Amino acid sequence: MNKLWNREEIDALLIENDVAVMRAICRLFEMQTQCEQATGMTDTKNNVGFSASDAKAGTRMARWLLGLNDRNEKRYQPKSLLHPKCQMVLGRYAQGGRVIDRARKIAMKHSKQLVRLANG
Fold it and tell me: How far apart are alpha carbons 114 and 120 in whole angstroms?
């Protein structure tokens, strides 16, 4: 029997688990259209993937996590948002805080989508 997740459980997981946050960012990126993935902007109002205000930061974080360059080509080793150089590279998207904290904020904002994904 498969577990059915609810939003409170997903939110609790995101609050306490950095790996879950990073997986969430990657999943949200995968849900973007190809055009949205390429531009780092949201151009389709489909309530899927990143919102317009999080698209650029979320896309940059996902590319870092997946080892993609700006053309979404696999060029690098995948890295964690906790990697020592992450703050230096992606810090501008962290709104003055830590990159993992901004990623957590993005994931929490989109947790309704993550519940749908988790429940398949």
Answer: 10
